[in-house]
Amino acid sequence: MSRLQGCHCDTVLDCDVISVTTCNLVDGTILRPANSWISADTINGSHNSSHSYHVSSQCPFDYCLPYSSYLNLSTPDMQCQFNRSGVLCGHCQQGLSAVFGSSQCKKCSNIYLFIMIPIAIAGIVLVMMLFVLKLTVTNGTINTFIFYVNIVNTNNSTLLPNCHSPICVLLFIFNLDLGIETCFYNNMSDYSKTCLQLAFPLYLIMIALALIMGSRYSSKVQRLTARRGLHVLATLFLLSYAKILSMVCHVLFFYTQITHLPSRHTQLFWSIDTSVELFGGRFTTLFVICILIFLLLMSFNILLLFTRQLLRFKFVNTFKPLLDPYLSSYKDKYFYWTGLQLLIRALFFSLSALDTKVSLLSGIIFTAILLCVQGVLWPFKSRLNNLLESFILLNLLLAYVITLYNYPNNVNSTATQYLILVVLVYFMFFIMYTCITTLYSNAAQQLKDVVHSHFIRWRIWKKSRTFEMTDNQIPDVTFNYKDFREPLIAVTD
Predict the structure, then answer these.
(1) Which residues contact 379 (CB under 8 A, 6 or more apart)?
(2) CB of 160 within 8 A of CB of 417?
(3) Are 37 and 60 in contact (CB under 8 A)?
(4) Phi/psi class of residue 312: alpha, beta or left (left: φ > 0; alpha: ψ in -120 to 50)?
């Protein structure tokens, strides 16, 4: 590396794209800036060799080392973390697989495919639990809790950086993530991982749709669903919204640019997996699918936001059964509240892509505004749900403030984790309470039905015994004709 040997690394690399001004002549390394990516190619000329540099001032999230480090340009993978390699550390090293739940690459085996069995069972259990316990969006508590876990999970890199505690595992599970680092099969790429992230939410929605369709042809399924199919379907969509939106936005909008020096021309890469050719066959297929999903999400969001105005159109009225579960817990004037919260989810997702400090400040401002508006309007019909949403928004605001306070120290905030734990524990107790009361009411109703049926049978039996007469039971009746004789008529002269 002639430039390094002469310690003239600043002549090319010290530019408006990236600044490298420190060289180590002993081992031929340079001090690379934090979270950046640099590599070099040797160009052999007729008299001497030179270097062509490939630099990016911003590496994809969690792929490159987040701190400045010394780098030998002959081994560019040294600047990657989690066993990643390649351009912008955009794919796993040879023989390793992408892992769900993090950006890591680990050794994997095809035997991990058996993990899909408990995941499939968990999906069925979740859907059945929503049906049996009536944990749907018609209950305002569910709306508030889903909103909270979606926002916290969207900003987990800001509020809970490098968090591996049970609190974070619970948070991921409530957002329909695995919550643990695992792979599915050997040599799974980041492209396949991205596609599979859509599988579980779609699987849950398919189960709910199958039960709704089955209720039309089976009386047993109809008794099980008890006409709550659309409520459960609406709940699953709300649970999946943030996860699907996050995945779609990563596919559509997040690209990484690399600049080639000294010729200074740029090239775009897909930040999720830089080994996938941009707008090639595989990427274009996923891109088109995500465009369609994004348009569907935004259309439904607009429909919820302007429900009262759009219901005057006959075409929109056909979708009213799908909208009713979202609207039933709110006052008539505030039917737009669910749509507003969906837009806020997208807003917070956009904020999470900013610089950490800017993201925290923006989160504090928008959470405070939302808390004030909610405190004035009180959109829920139930006073308890209004108080609960105010408490949860205040909890979220405190979590942002505490994280911003600890930001200069660059440490995880235990207080933030405890604040999030309070909400998670409350909701778990709410589920337990709902489960107990539902099972108790069902058992009491069944006992009442049994007692009632036995009482009816006893009354019928008693009545039948009263009117049942045999020859031996015919009573003796003495007929006295004198009692029925007409009285003598007194005749007077």
Answers:
(1) 330, 331, 334, 337, 386
(2) yes
(3) no
(4) alpha
**Alpha-carbon gap, residue 154 to 373, rounded angstroms:** 22
Task: Please give the backbone phi and psi of residue 230, each rounded to the nearest 5 degrees, phi first.
Answer: -65, -35
Domain coordinates of the chain in residue numbers? 2-81, 110-443
DSSP-based three-state secondary structure for 81: coil
Place of tokens 């069925």: 124
d(CA 67, CA 398): 28
How far is residue 486's CA from residue 340's CA, in Å, rounded to a whole number?
Answer: 92
Report residue 292: phi and psi, to 5°.
-65, -40
Counts for the chain of helices (H) and strands (E), in that order = 18, 11
Q: What whole-number distance in Å separates Cα of residue 416 and Cα of residue 143?
A: 22
Q: What would the two tokens of residue 283 be?
A: 């990427």
Q: Find out whether 2 and 51 touch, Cβ atoms under 8 Å.
A: yes
DSSP 480: -
Torsion of CA 340, 343, 349, 350, to 10 degrees: -120
Place of tokens 């009411």: 441
Backbone dihedral angles phi then psi of residue 100, each to the nearest 5 degrees? -75, 145
52 φ, ψ to 5°? -110, 125
How far from chain centre, in Å, is Cα 64? Answer: 26
Distance of alpha carbon 103 from alpha carbon 484, whole angstroms: 107
- Which tens digit of pLDDT belongs to each residue from 75-94? 889 999 999 999 999 999 98
pLDDT, tens digit, for every residue of 278-332? 888 888 888 898 899 889 888 888 999 998 888 888 888 888 888 888 888 999 8
How far is residue 45's CA from residue 267's CA, in Å, rounded to a whole number?
25
Four-CA torsion 182, 187, 192, 198, nearest 10 degrees:
-20
- Condensed to tens digits (0 to 9), the pLDDT of residues 18-38 reads 777 677 766 778 888 888 898
**What span, in angstroms and rounded, lies between the C-alpha atoms of 425 and 395?**
13
Query: Taking a C-beta distance cutoff of 8 angstroms, is the pair 183, 431 a contact?
Result: no
Residue 206 neighbours by CB under 8 Å, 6+ apart: none
* Predicted local confidence at residue 486, as pLDDT: 53
